Amino acid sequence: MNLDLILLVVFALLLGLLMYIKREKVAVEKIAFPFIYIVMYKTKIGIDLMDKIAKKFPKFTKIFGFLGVIFGFLTMTIIFVILTIKVYGFLFNGEPTPIAPLLPGVQAAPGVPILGFWHWIISIFILATVHEFSHGWLARLYDIKVKSSGFAVLGILLPIVPAAFVEPDEEKLNKVSRWKQLEVLAAGSFSNYLTALLFLILFLFVAAPLFSSTIHSEGVIVRDVQENYPANLSGMKTGEEILKVNNIDINNLDKFYDLVSGIKPGDEIKVLTNVSSYTLIAVEQPENFINRIAFWKDEYGYIGLITSPKISDFEDGKELLGKTLSWIGLLFYWLFTINLAVGMFNMLPLGPIDGGKMFLILSNVLIKNEKKAKKLWIFVSFFCLALILLGLMPFIFKLFNFIFGPVIGLIF
């Protein structure tokens, strides 16, 4: 029984009921209704604050907008290249899919902790609030009216993903210079990058050290083994405790890293666990965008083993504090991960999202011919959409099997 998924379904049903009760105050944007849609509850929340900050700190706001555009196009290029390379690898080289739904109860990738319901809903709320507030903040700097703000829900059959929104006056937005339009569009993702950086710092330098001070850590546990890499092929399983590497005792994670950090492709590593002994032959670093451009790609070996410290016990009287700090640390991790992932995804040159709108403006600047620029925008948008759908195929098949598998089994 997956409690996180159950909570998600209950949350979606309650949210749907609330939206129905308040149906006079909501608007529905039908994308592929009733399969995909957005329900918006319009208010005036935050508009005055957007205006005050923009008018009180105009220089800071302009610097924020400038950096937003620069980082926007930079990350647009990076995420487009990564997505193209990784989907190609998934289709033709048997690599894992680069796309995973960030939903509670679902493990997005090997070695990544499962996203809990409460971590998910808090992260999404902060992500959406920061993102949409930044759009409105930049809009008000250039006297673009913000008609409304409020709460929204992305529906995929059920209203599942909570969000926030601001509604700028589109006519006034289209009348300002293209650069100012880019600043407004890029502000959301740039604010998510800064939020991700903030919570990464809090995770590394606050939550993690404080948590470490509450525990006794003795030994190393196998947290995950990546499919089709040496550890997995040797038969090693998640949960085993590593006792020795090359006949040297392993007492902590630092000792383990010291022994394996210098391995090269082709090196033999002998690993003894509490279950069995294994012989691993290191391979080259996996193909991905970072390793593709890194000078050390061919220098270091890879065994596909993800480890974590073995917590033997909490310090006296610190169990409650330790568990609380562990929960907070995991929240910081997800706030970093989700803000970075969604911020970059939002910069894809895809249709109506911010990155797609920015790419259309850039196309018009570079091509000068509006029809040709729009054709390029349509082509790139459909290309990105195809990459996303192809990358999501394993999860689509799993969802189909989960929903319809029992019914098909009964019929046949």
Quick gist of this model?
Helix content is 56%, strand content 19%.
Q: Overview of this structure, please?
A:
It is built from 13 helices and 12 strands. By secondary structure, it is of the alpha+beta class. Strands 5, 6, 7, 8, 9 and 12 form a 6-stranded antiparallel sheet that branches. It has a 4-stranded antiparallel sheet with strand order 1-2-3-4. Mean pLDDT is 86; it is low at 288-297.
Observed structural traits:
single chain
Task: Provide the succession of SSEs.
Answer: HEEHHHEEHHEHEEHEEEHEEHHHH
Question: Counting H and I runs of at least 4 residues, what is the number of helices?
Answer: 13
Indicate the proportion of strand residues: 15-25%
Q: What helical percentage do the residues reach?
A: 55-70%
Distance between the termini: 26 Å
The average pLDDT is 86
The rounded Rg comes to 24 Å
The biggest beta sheet reads: 6 strands, antiparallel
Q: Quick one: how many beta strands?
A: 12
List segments where confidence is low: pLDDT < 50 over at least 5 consecutive residues: 288-297
Protein topology:
Elements: H1 3-21, E1 26-32, E2 36-43, H2 47-56, H3 58-92, H4 117-141, E3 146-156, E4 158-168, H5 170-175, H6 178-212, E5 215-225, H7 230-234, E6 241-245, E7 248-249, H8 253-260, E8 268-273, E9 277-281, E10 283-284, H9 289-293, E11 301-302, E12 305-314, H10 319-345, H11 354-367, H12 370-391, H13 393-411
Antiparallel strand pairs: 1-2, 2-3, 3-4, 5-6, 5-12, 6-7, 6-8, 8-9, 10-11
Helix pairs in contact: 2-4, 3-6, 3-12, 4-6, 4-10, 6-10, 6-11, 11-12
